[in-house]
Structure formats: C-alpha cells, structure tokens
Amino acid sequence: MPDGDVTTDSIIPKTAQVTAIIQAVEKLTFVGATIVPHCFGTSCSIQMHISDGAIAESGEILGKIRGPAQIILSCERVMLNLIQRLCGIASASRKYVQLAHSHDVKVLDTRKTTPGLRLFEKYAITVGGAYNHRLNLSEGILIKDNHIRTAGSISNALKIVKKTNTHLPLELEVANLTQIQEALKNGVDGFLLDNMSPSTVKEAVALIRKSDGGEDIFIEASGNITDENIVFYLDTGINAISVGAITHSATNKDIRLEFIS
Hints:
- The chain has 8 helices and 12 strands.
- It is an alpha/beta fold.
- It folds into 2 domains: 6-97 and 251-259, Quinolinate phosphoribosyl transferase, N-terminal domain (Aldehyde Oxidoreductase, domain 3, Alpha-Beta Complex); 131-242, Aldolase class I (TIM Barrel), CATH 3.20.20.70.
- Strands 6-11-10-9-8-7 form a 6-stranded parallel β-sheet.
- β9, α7 and β10 (218-222) form a beta-alpha-beta unit.
- The longest helix has 32 residues, at 69-100.
- The chain is elongated and about 75 Å long.
- The two termini are 26 Å apart.
- The relative contact order is 0.16.
C-alpha cells in the first residue's frame, strides 16, 4: 500500500478498536503460531489458540487479534496469504508422511519453493513431518545431470568435488544403472534415483546394497512421485522419497479473519 489503504483509511476512524478472530474454514495442519504475532505490529495484541503442527478442524478458532481496525484490515490479507500457503504445504507434507510411515521411508522436500518464501515453506514442511533435503545450496553436495555434463563424466565430477569439499555429504543424481556402477567405483554418500520406475528402483537398490559399504549409502527416489503412486516405491528398499509436489502443487487452505466486536 504505497499510498495507504485508501478504502480502509476513508471509512474506518483511526480510533476504532476491534476484536477479530482467525478461523479455519476447512480441516488443516496448522502453521503460523510464531508468525501471525509479527504480522500486525506492536499496537495489536494477539492470542494464538493452536500450536504449529496441530490439526485444526473446520470452524475452529485459531487465534484472536485486538487492536486498531485500520491496521488489522490493512494487514490481514498478507497474513492470510502466507498462512494459507504454509498450512497447505504442511497438510500436504503430513499426507505423504502418513503414506510412507509404515515402511519407515522419509519424505524429503526439493528446491521447488516460492521465491522469497523458501525458509517459511521449508519450516512448513517440517511441521508436516517431512524433512528438508537441503536448507540451502551450501549444506550439501548434490551432483546433477548438468554438473556431470560440464565436468565431462560422473568420475570427473566426483574426483573434482572430493578435492574441494571433502567435509560435506556427497550425493549423486543418476538416471540409470550404468551411472550407478560408475559412481560406485569412485565412492558416494548417497544416490538420488531420478525418474526411475519402481522395478528399476529395486534393481538400483540391490546393486548399491551389494557393493562394498553399500548398506551405509543413502538412497532416495524422486521424479513424478505422487500420493497416488508412492505406494509402489515404498517397498523397494530406499531410505527416502523427495517430493516436489508438497511445495509446487500444494493447495492453499481456507482460513478467514472476521471482526466479532
């Protein structure tokens, strides 16, 4: 609002004080208990009635705000946009986690986040029970296809990175069994099996596990894995599944703010 909230400023007196509720319109996994209090400034008092990670039922009051009507009206949409988005991500994360739980397979996020909201979205993922694959590009090495093309081969890429980043975990993205065989000769800490069918994933896991030290290698599957087909990957022997859909395809949850006095 570069020139103010012209609608609110024209209608609502500066002196008007109100109480508003934040209410879930549908069932959701909540995220925002530590965020909402920062959305309205110091002139508003905020009480949250729910903790992050709790399940809110339709109609449940999530919190109350008391303060100047102008400020609450001007700030509500920013707060709602953010919280609706984060609750959608946390709810999607929880759904995948529940599907994978019986097989002790971790659900990981990807870098397919909204520009400017990465840390918020990464937090929402953990609230839903999933894990951050990497919080940022400095936390771990993940060699992908374009890195390999630039280096000339998998072997070259692995040798180069080991000379400069020996203290970080080293994971390699592979698309076929031949690439796995080449990588095993050079040593890696983890494999990302990209866009493989469940049957190919099983073959890949067997190949890795029978190699020297293979039981300690971290294996994840990724690529077009959804809540509809995830079940076919869960008994393949992998450690984790990374799912871009929990961020890039998450549906915002319906939350509203209403004045009650």
